[in-house]
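batch job 7 of whatever, protein = DNA lyase
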Amino acid sequence: MRIWSLHPSSLDRVGLVACWRETLLAQAVLADATKGYRNHPQLLRFRRTENPIGAVGVYLAGLAEEATRRGYKFNASKIISRDFDDKLTVTQGQLDYEWQHLGAKLAVRSPEDALRWQTTAAAPHPLFTVVPGDIEGWERT
């Protein structure tokens, strides 16, 4: 499961669709609607909030907005709640790590997107505010 801290516009088609599907799974886990992935480390940042379902819903809404911008049809009615007015934090080290990880993936599966990646900088998903720090403790490097 990869729930990117990066802005959805950074992702290629494959990455955006995979992130949507994996975050829907994360939402199901947080809603106790499935038994798998309950201890996945990437869920910690949502679980630390007062409203994990709302936080993951805001994350999903950001993915859906990017999908709509590209002309894709993600079923946003699958979002349980968007009731979350706060921001989550992501460390600069985590964002940098994910940016390099994405670049390596794009080089293999999406050469056009890899070229675009080379000329842009890492930006966070709208749910996140970047703070100083190293790679997050929950990241599996």
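notes: The chain has a mean pLDDT of 95.
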